[in-house]
Amino acid sequence: MASFGGDSWLTEHEACLGSGQxxxxxxxxxxxLQRSGSNYSKINADIRLSLRRFSQDIQHLRQQLxxxxxQYHITxxxxxxxxxxxxxxxxKDKILxxxxxxxxxxxxxxxxxLLNSNTAGFGQDTWGxxxxxxxxxxxxxxxxxxxxxxxxxxxxxxxxxxVVARQKQMGETIGDELEQHNEIIDDLTRNVHRTDDxxxxxxxxxxxxxxxxxxxxxxxxxxxxxxAIVVIVAVPAP
Length: 238
Known about the structure:
Blueprint: H1 9-31, H2 38-70, H3 76-102, H4 108-115, H5 124-128, H6 139-234
Helix pairs in contact: 1-2, 1-3, 2-3
């Protein structure tokens, strides 16, 4: 099955549903043939291939639904409705495989029940699980409704993106101001370090001067004492 966009999920579902109807018709045609005939083997192989493709198509629908739901391309209610349609396809896939393996032959009324789009068989679940919002709407109407919902979501996302952009700009401005303040603080720190080094040098110089002053005072005292002794010795007593 070709890969459709997210808006064509219902179309792809209808195509898958039609494939299931065709497989059921083939199974009933096969059961009317004799097992020993060549036509029986040919149609049996064709049914086996169709069942494999049918299962692959269902898995593709599951992946597309999961992607659309996770990316908010559809509403939660629509996602639940489509999940119900998908569950019905899975149930029919099981029925088809069992009929293929067990060679179940359906009577005319049973075959009509399985193939008629207005009964409980294939086709009914396409619209039988519709919500009140989509009841009576065509596929195009539902697509248009989904487009409107998506457009509203896009507008909200645009508003959110604008807010995020403004917040980002404010953050960048604050970051620039912080960088400028950090540079000023770095300059002050360097100046403080230089001033501290100068204070340490001046303190050491003062200590050296003080030590030298103490030494000179000691020498002066010694000289004064020597002069006093010399004077006392040189002057005769009366």
